[in-house]
Amino acid sequence: MGTGAGFGFEILPDFSSYALLIHWTDLDAAENVEQHPTFRELADMSESHETHWMQCARVHGSWNGVNPFFPSAEYKGGPIITITRARISWKYMLSFLKAVKVTVKALQNTPGLIYTKGIGQTPLVEQATFSIWENAECMENYAYRTRHQEYLEVNQQWFQEELFGRFVPVELP
Predict the structure, then answer these.
(1) Beta strands in 19-151 (DSSP E)
(2) pLDDT tens digit string along 32-46?
(3) β-bridge partners, 169
């Protein structure tokens, strides 16, 4: 998937960063992903790469009509990773983009945010956010106690589809 420029949510793409989101059902394949020829090819073209292993703790919504994640972990505190994804209705695109500027400004100064990047399959229309937080409380403070929540409550018609997932960082055996 492509990524957004700037803080990660600009309308222009960041041609220096890309994201792979892989849902594994085979632990052996997951453990050996970095040996796979396609992964090696992508890694060889990159200055650096990071892998974040995680298990789903909670999810609702859909991604292209299905929910690809199944809760298999319990969040017991500490860091939490979120993936949000939405398909934006074209007729609300301008309103949505204006709101993004306001909510991203709040996000930049949010305590507890470790990392975030806007990712997506189709620029503008199918957008996702990958974020790592110090803990669930910090993430919830941003999601439910800032202008972000205000926009979500008032503008649900913006989204043709949405998904919100919480993930627990894990180490592979």
Answers:
(1) 54-61, 80-88, 113-122, 126-133
(2) 888 999 989 988 988
(3) 54
